[in-house]
């Protein structure tokens, strides 16, 4: 699969720093997320990774490698998790916190992206930069877990996110006055709804297209606005002002949460 030149450059810069700092440590580098799903957008997307080592690496080495990479290639962000080959064969719930990069910052122990979605995207769509093709790997992949995890994410993470974002004079509430936060959040909850309904995975753009048909016409404006932002935002906004867009995004998220958490959605 061909990847965007900026993605290729970022991955190769990381590998160069890793091989100089800790020769032989990085045995596999796989791209997941929007790159793997064919929806990478240079102006809005980060680059999600799963990096494989034969042993649990020293955090200070990884921190240095990621810092050097970020200094050379500040954007797009390089976010993801460090696993061993054995980790791939197990339910991610049994992995516990792992070395991760979240929001461009290295964390020695975190659980972001340690979930069935990441394992599934790697197994079915992962892009190999170094290491065997994903179809040759022994990756734990239980389709039924995708719905369970998606429901839990909506019920726990996104319900809390919506509550906090609903308070205007807070960092999260103010962020939703911009264009990226509404687009990211609206399309993210739409992706989870898609998985609950179908048992499959889609990209953010795919989720927007799905939602345009899955929900009543009144939600088309906010969905088309979020897709406009994701595609690059060259056309004018569909909303008169940021407050109106913020309100529509929060109302949409609340609707999706109510619909997703009602009994009997998943088929």
What does this structure look like?
- There is one protein chain.
- Strand 2, helix 3 and strand 3 form a beta-alpha-beta unit.
- The protein is α+β, with helices and mostly antiparallel strands.
- 52% of the residues lie in helices and 13% in strands.
- The protein folds into 2 domains: 5-136, 2-Layer Sandwich (Beta Polymerase, domain 2), CATH 3.30.460; 143-260.
Briefly characterize the structure.
By secondary structure, this protein is an alpha+beta fold.
* Biggest pleated sheet: 6 strands, mixed
Q: CATH class of the largest domain, please? A: Alpha Beta
Let me know the number of strands: 6
N-to-C series of helices and strands = HEHEHEHEEHEHHHHHH
**Alpha carbon gap, first and last residue:** 32 Å
Q: Kindly state the mean pLDDT as a whole number?
A: 94
CATH architecture of the largest domain: 2-Layer Sandwich
Weakly predicted, low-confidence segments: none
As for the number of domains, it is 2
Describe the strand arrangement of the main beta sheet, using strand numbers. 5-4-3-2-1-6
Q: Which shape, going by the Cα principal axes?
A: globular
- Count the DSSP helices: 11
Radius of gyration: 19 Å
Beta-strand content estimate: 5-15%
Which structural class do you get from the secondary structure elements?
alpha+beta
């Amino acid at each position: 699969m061909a990847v965007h030149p900026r993605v290729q450059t970022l991955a190769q810069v990381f590998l160069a720093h890793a091989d100089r700092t800790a020769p032989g440590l990085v045995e596999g580098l796989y791209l997941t997320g929007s790159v793997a799903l064919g929806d990478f957008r240079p102006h809005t997307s980060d680059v999600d990774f799963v990096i494989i080592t034969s042993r649990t690496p020293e955090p200070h080495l990884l921190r240095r490698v990621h810092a050097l990479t970020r200094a050379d290639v500040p954007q797009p962000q390089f976010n993801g998790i460090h696993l061993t080959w054995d980790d791939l064969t197990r339910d991610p719930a049994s992995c516990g916190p792992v070395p991760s990069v979240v929001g461009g910052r290295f964390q020695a122990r975190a659980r972001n992206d340690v979930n069935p979605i990441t394992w599934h995207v790697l197994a079915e769509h992962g892009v190999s930069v170094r290491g065997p093709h994903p179809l040759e790997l022994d990756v734990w992949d239980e389709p039924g877990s995708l719905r369970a995890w998606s429901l839990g994410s909506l019920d726990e993470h996104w319900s809390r996110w919506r509550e906090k974002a609903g308070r205007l004079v807070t960092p999260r509430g103010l962020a939703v006055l911009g264009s990226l936060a509404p687009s990211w959040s609206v399309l993210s909850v739409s992706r989870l709804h898609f998985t609950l309904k179908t048992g499959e995975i889609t990209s953010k753009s795919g989720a927007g297209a799905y939602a345009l048909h899955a929900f009543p016409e009144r939600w088309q404006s906010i969905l088309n606005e979020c897709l406009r932002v994701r595609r690059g935002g060259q056309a004018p906004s569909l909303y008169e002002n940021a407050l109106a867009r913020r309100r529509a995004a929060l109302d949409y998220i609340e609707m999706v949460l109510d619909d997703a958490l009602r009994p009997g959605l998943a088929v």
